[in-house]
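User: Sequence recovery, please. Input:
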């Protein structure tokens, strides 16, 4: 059954809402509302009432107090708030003008540096072109002179054969076999190569600078994909306050694009154990005691034999030279096709990674160590005294080209004290552990028949496999 509606008096109404035309002259103290004389014998019968003039004399001091308090305090404070908003508007405009100016200055600076670098490189190209032009012209002149000498010598030989004496014929024979006239040596020209960076965006963001933004109820991202929002006029808050928004950190994850096979080839080499792509699209492979450079079609461009078994190889991102570690604790660099010994390690080096800072990270039993190119140790994860090592059996090492963090595939062999559960350890540049990845996947991931149920295995590929795949995904890479 519906509840009946109770009529309410409108502000300023002087007549009773229950008895039409009756003036409101009394006040019901129980119901705290105005009533007419007829209400006293009906709706408000037996309720304590008084005349309206009596109750208004009691309310007047409260009204006076409100007026006084509001004029002296609230209105003054509101005026200050209004003035503050004007200041906030000016500061807001000024802040973003300064930020925009700094950003434009940094952008212009980067443009100038790029222009300067371009001009320097173009100047170098121009100088190399001029030097090569001089060498080629000189070579052409020498060839023309040599051609003239040969023609003259041919004429002399013909004349000698026709009417020359035996002495003249003998001298002609000696003359054509004389080293005084030889083909000019072809000059060695200066060469240059330029490979555009395929994915410069991350490096450009890093060069531009770090952007940190805060907002109210928004999701704002910067170059590092970190997001923070704050309330209460831009002041961060970590605790709940009445009427104020609480600071909250939002982390967004973006799924990487699916990897696609864009090219595949069969290598002529067996037992591939390591593979390192070059900047010009070729690839170095390691097979037992042999280093092989393959072009994009799988054709052998260079092959270097090693006298012992090679454990791993790494390509320097700065010099583009190949580094090698072997079973006799040697760390070597391939320079102009020749192996050059750089230093030796006390323990067997099972994997190697040359960093962007031109350091050499070597993986050994229970540790990885960072060295300079001449073998001076920079840092290590090796436990001092009694303590559980950070790594047990390093198998492969990789450096992030953006953050320079280091990731190590650890096979955790029982012979080294591990539990045989393979995983990946990620560290910063000083080898401080950031996190360990054991194959955990988000709930949104749908396993395929190839991946479902298999234990996590951070392995570079199967040995004794000759098929090379060129993959396109978050980065361009080769695998076997």
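Assistant: Recovered sequence (480 residues):
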């Amino acid at each position: 059954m519906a509840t009946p509606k109770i009529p309410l008096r409108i502000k300023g109404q002087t007549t009773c809402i229950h008895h039409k035309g009756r003036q409101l002259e009394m006040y019901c103290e129980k119901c705290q509302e105005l009533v007419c004389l007829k209400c006293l014998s009906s709706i408000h019968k037996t309720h304590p009432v008084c005349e309206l003039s009596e109750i208004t004399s009691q309310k007047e001091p409260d009204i006076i107090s409100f007026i006084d308090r509001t004029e002296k305090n609230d209105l003054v404070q509101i005026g200050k708030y209004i003035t503050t908003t004007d200041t906030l508007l000016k500061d807001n405009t000024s802040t973003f003008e300064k930020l925009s100016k700094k950003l434009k200055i940094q952008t212009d600076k980067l443009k100038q540096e790029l222009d300067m670098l371009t001009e320097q490189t173009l100047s170098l190209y121009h100088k190399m072109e001029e030097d090569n032009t001089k060498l080629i012209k000189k070579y052409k002149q020498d060839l023309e002179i040599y051609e003239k000498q040969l023609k003259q010598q041919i004429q002399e030989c013909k004349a000698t054969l026709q009417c020359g004496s035996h002495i003249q014929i003998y001298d002609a024979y000696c003359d054509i076999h004389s080293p005084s006239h030889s083909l000019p040596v072809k000059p060695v020209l200066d060469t240059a190569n330029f490979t555009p960076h395929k994915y410069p965006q991350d490096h450009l963001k890093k060069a531009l600078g770090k952007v940190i933004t805060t907002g109210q109820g928004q999701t704002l991202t910067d170059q590092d994909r970190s997001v923070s929002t704050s309330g209460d006029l831009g002041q961060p808050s970590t605790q709940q306050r009445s009427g104020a928004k609480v600071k909250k950190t939002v982390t967004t994850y973006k799924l990487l694009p699916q990897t696609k096979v864009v090219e595949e080839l069969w290598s002529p080499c067996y037992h591939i154990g390591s593979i390192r792509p070059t900047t010009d699209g070729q690839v170095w492979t390691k097979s037992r005691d042999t280093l092989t450079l393959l072009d994009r079609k799988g054709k052998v461009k260079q092959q270097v034999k090693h006298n012992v078994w090679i454990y791993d190889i790494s390509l320097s991102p700065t010099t583009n030279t190949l580094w090698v570690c072997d079973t006799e604790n040697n760390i070597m660099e391939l320079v102009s096709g020749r192996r050059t010994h750089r230093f030796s390690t006390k323990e067997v080096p099972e994997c190697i990674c040359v960093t962007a800072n031109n350091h050499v990270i070597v993986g050994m039993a229970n540790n990885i160590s960072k060295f300079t190119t001449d073998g001076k140790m920079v840092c290590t994860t090796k436990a001092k005294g009694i303590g559980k090592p950070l790594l047990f059996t390093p198998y492969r090492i990789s450096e992030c080209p953006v953050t320079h963090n280091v990731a190590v595939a650890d096979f955790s062999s029982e012979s080294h004290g591990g539990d045989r559960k393979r995983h990946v350890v990620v560290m910063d540049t000083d080898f401080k552990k950031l996190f360990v990845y054991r194959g955990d996947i988000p709930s949104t991931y749908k396993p395929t028949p190839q991946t479902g149920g298999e234990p996590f295995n951070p392995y570079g590929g199967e040995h004794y496999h000759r098929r090379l795949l060129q993959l396109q995904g978050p980065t361009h890479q080769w695998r076997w």
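The chain is about 25% helix and 25% strand.
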